[in-house]
Each structure stands twice: as structure tokens, then as C-alpha cells.
Write a structure and sequence with these properties.
Elements: H1 4-21, H2 24-40, H3 44-49, H4 55-69, H5 73-84, H6 91-106, E1 108-115, H7 121-135, E2 138-145, E3 152-157, E4 160-165, H8 166-179
Parallel strand pairs: 1-2
Antiparallel strand pairs: 1-3, 3-4
Helix pairs in contact: 1-2, 1-6, 2-6, 4-5
Length: about 180
């Protein structure tokens, strides 16, 4: 079982090192790149964690990847530490928790904006400005098109869902008609 509390401690330590050395943005970029590798290459973490391969082989492969990604030495050492301690499976969680800490520190909230049709950049900016005004924080959206919602928008920011879709309004109308 993966202990997420350990991943949070690693992320917090890296975050504090980043603050101390003025490398918060660099670490965010490096950990984001690593997270992307873990998501796109299914075999990456299992290979690094596989004890049937010699540690030096796994380390050499990782060092080649780190060089191509131009990772900071502290991030490289973090991954090597995780590999040595048989905790490399924590890496995606460390990356996520670091992003969460970085966002919190910068006053950023992340969200998903679903619409029935493609929105223009101006429309996305207008929604973002309205949400930023309401939350008093900077908002970054992932925009998705979902034809099933018919019209309107579905906005998820953190744990909060704002459902202004036609589909939801039709469901509410149906429930009201059934209840009488």
C-alpha cells in the first residue's frame, strides 16, 4: 500500500528547498515534466521500481531521461532517493502534492470547465475573471467539450461543482414534474 503521507512529506521538503534556494518555479517545471513522463510512459515507474533489474541499470536509464528533461540536481537526487528506498511509486504523488503546494502558495486554484461547444479565448477569459472575482484567487482551467451537456457550462473548481448546464436544468424540471 502506498503511504500518501510520505509523498506529502517529500513534496513539502522539496517545496521548502525550492523556497530556500529560489527554485520554486524550476522545481514545479521539473516535477511537472516527470509527472508527464509517468502518465505517458506506463512502464516508467514499474521499471524504476523493479528489483529484478540491477539498480545501476535503472539509475542509468533515469539519468539519461533526467538529462533530456534538463532536471535540476535536487530533483534528480529526489528520484534516486526514492529508487534507493524502494519508494519510487510515490513519485507521481510527490509531483501532484508539490503542484498543490505551489498553487496554494501562489494563490492559484485549478478547475475544469466543460461546455457543449468550443469556447473562444475571450469567453474562457470572461468565465475565469468571474470565478476569480468570486473566489478572490487566480484560476486556471482545463477546458473540455462535452456534447452530452446540451448547453451551458459545468465548472469544477477544487471540490466545488457549479452546474449551469441545460442537462441539469432539464433534470431539475423532470424531478419537479414528478414530485408535483
Amino acid at each position: 500500500m502506498i503511504k500518501l503521507s510520505s509523498a506529502k512529506r517529500y513534496a513539502k521538503t522539496i517545496f521548502e528547498l525550492g523556497q530556500e534556494k529560489g527554485l520554486l518555479e524550476r522545481f514545479a517545471r521539473d516535477l511537472s515534466a516527470l509527472k508527464e513522463v509517468t502518465e505517458k510512459v506506463d512502464e516508467f515507474i514499474p521499471f524504476l521500481a523493479n528489483p529484478t533489474y540491477d539498480y545501476s541499470q535503472r539509475e542509468q536509464l533515469f539519468l539519461e531521461i533526467a538529462k533530456k528533461l534538463d532536471l535540476n540536481d535536487i530533483i534528480v537526487n529526489l528520484v534516486k532517493l526514492l529508487m534507493e528506498g524502494n519508494k519510487v511509486k510515490l513519485l507521481p504523488y510527490v509531483c501532484k502534492f508539490y503542484q498543490d503546494l505551489s498553487d496554494f502558495y501562489a494563490g492559484i486554484v485549478r478547475g475544469t470547465l466543460k461546455t457543449a461547444a468550443e469556447l473562444s479565448d475571450e469567453e474562457i477569459k470572461a468565465v475565469a475573471l468571474a470565478v476569480e472575482k468570486a473566489l478572490k484567487k487566480k484560476v486556471e482551467f482545463t477546458v473540455e467539450v462535452d456534447k452530452d451537456i446540451i448547453g451551458g457550462v459545468l465548472l469544477k473548481v477544487g471540490d466545488v461543482v457549479y452546474d449551469g448546464t441545460v442537462k441539469k436544468q432539464l433534470e431539475i424540471l423532470k424531478d419537479n414534474l414528478i414530485k408535483g
